[in-house]
Amino acid sequence: MFFHIQKIEQSTHHTDNLQNPKTPGNPMVLGVYRNKARTIFYTIYTKKTFGEYWDSVENKRISKRFWTPEMKEYYQQKALDTPKPPFVFKMTVVGWLFILLFIGVFGYLIYDSVKPPLAKSEKHVAMEQAPVMGDVYFGRYEIYKEKGNPLGMEGRFGWFKVLKVEGDVYHIAKSTEMNSAHRPKEEMNSTSFESKSLPPVKLTEQTGYNVRFKSDDGLTEIYITDKQES
Questions:
Q1: Which is nearest to 194 in space by CA: 217, 177, 170, 219?
Q2: Chain centroid to CA 168: how far?
Q3: Which of 37, 92, 172, 192 could form a disulfide with 44 if both were Cys (CB 3.0 to 4.6 A apart)?
């Protein structure tokens, strides 16, 4: 980040009545200064000033450790007469823009944390309801010959109906019309189902977007994407 400190001269004073501690006889000049710090976000003037004595002949600054009590007192007198800075702290245009951006982001985060959740769609609510006997769903089933081996797997798309629920076990029958490739659910039979269910399955996942059933042996899986409106 850009940062710059500048020494600003506030006043200068000839010190004919003071003795030069380094080179007696050489005149001195007292300069009173304050610092100005600038960044891309703000500008600061220090309230406190500081003084520097300079040898007018050699044009060298006299270190503060050589200051006599009279030099210190003289600086204190002149420091009191130094005008105040035009300001102590001032934001730049970039600084104000940054603050506005911060306030906007912080305000949005607060609003986002307290705003009411969006209303769920009817489909979302229906999919979240626990399956019961008579529910009709659209999706896909997969039956494997060997767990984890897709070779020889049977998979079809179509409608399903929950025939019976025994605790956490579901008996689900597939439609008499199933298709090996996906087709729009509206084009497929959703009223005629086989009397015999697929192997018993249990509910393993349920969200507003999908429902998943799986048999204990892992060979039968049913993936549901839609629920028929009652």
A1: 177
A2: 41
A3: 37
